[in-house]
Amino acid sequence: MTQDDPAPSAPDESGSGAAPPAVPAQGAPAKEPPVARLKSRSRPIRRVPKPRMTGLLDSPVKNLTGGVAYTLAIMLVATGAYISQGWSFRDALYMVITTIFTVGYNEVRPINTVALNIITLTLIVLGCTGIIFLTGALVQFITLNHLNKAIGLKRMNAQIDELKEHVIVCGFGRFGAALARALSASSAAFVIIEENEARAAEARLQGYLCIHGNASGEEFLRAAGVTRAHALATVLANDALNVFITLSARALNPELSIVARGELSSTESKLLQAGADKVVLPTHIGAERIAELLLYEESARIIESLERSHGFQRVLRNFGIDLEVVTAAPQSAAVRMTVAAVERQAKGAFFVVQINRRDGDVYTAPPATAVIGEGDGVVLLGRPNRAAILTSLFEPRQKVGARA
């Protein structure tokens, strides 16, 4: 019983120095305060009493280590004892090994003295005991390892079965590992499907829920809870597998949100046709990012600082807002238009927060009368459905050819 909250109570009538029973004072509530109740309930969960094993059988690793050390010590002492009786090192070691491993060959030299009899009898008793203990420790170590692995897999599968509205990540390569770190940092529930056994073990070692299997197989998608999941990201380096996984996942859960990775630009249309909601082309995104760093260093620095601020980025995503830098291409509609005219034509899809001139000048929070020129970089804050209006404003106008 805890006595964190002293309360007035009647003196002990027995006169003994024992503490009075934990009875609430008059006028006090009969039950514990909420904090005390939470502590009393959570303490057994946080501090599960574990049996303290302080003997020789406390740990398989300690048993194995102790058995090896004991056997080696007996071998060294016995070898030295035989050498002290005039035996060579080779004969002494041979006699020790054949004795403790109970092989049963003949003695290399006659045991014809009292000292040799004592040494041999002691070696038989202590050496064979050490080998028996070492064998048992080895069996215990191997058995418990297999049991722990089986129990761990069973526990992990039970945790996966309880997930709902989670994310499934197909692949734990460099791309998948980075995605897993981002999801873990945002406290999102997710499951990884990885075919490579070493990578799957690495994912589990990092504390992630991971299924070892081929994500293109429906059984592994079902095991990951695809019918209960909110989203799926297939980030394998093989475009064909990404297409097949997208097809399988879409067939199993038509309401699933699917984001797919594509290595080739020609794969984007195939992934969209297979059922992907969004396609990410890392090579294309990386090239655009490098171009931003080279051409619009100031804007890239702003965006990079915002990307480091994960809280701000999450707030933007929660409101459905993205930050983007676009270039006013020559002969595009935005050239020679004012900021007010561009925002008016966008009809709320975005608004301009910065203009980077071709000559290097940067205008943050530009006025409504600022004019956009050819090659200017425009930093936009807008909604995800702005692709069509961006194309019409900042891409070159299509020239209509003369008809025959």
How is this structure best described in words?
Strand 5, helix 9 (267-274) and strand 6 (278-280) form a beta-alpha-beta unit. With 404 residues, the chain is α/β, with parallel strands linked by helices. The strands form two sheets. It has a six-stranded parallel β-sheet, with helices on both faces. Strands 7-10-8-9 form a four-stranded antiparallel β-sheet, with helices on both faces. Residues 1-57 and 400-404 have low confidence and may be disordered. Helix 2 (60-84) packs across helix 3, helix 2 (60-84) runs antiparallel to helix 4 (114-162) and helix 8 packs parallel to helix 9. The protein is built from 14 helices and ten strands. It has helices spanning 34-46, 60-84, 89-100, 114-162, 174-185, 197-205, 218-223, 239-252, 267-274, 282-295, 297-308, 310-318, 339-346, 387-394; strands at 167-170, 190-194, 210-212, 231-234, 257-261, 278-280, 322-327, 350-356, 362-364, 377-382.
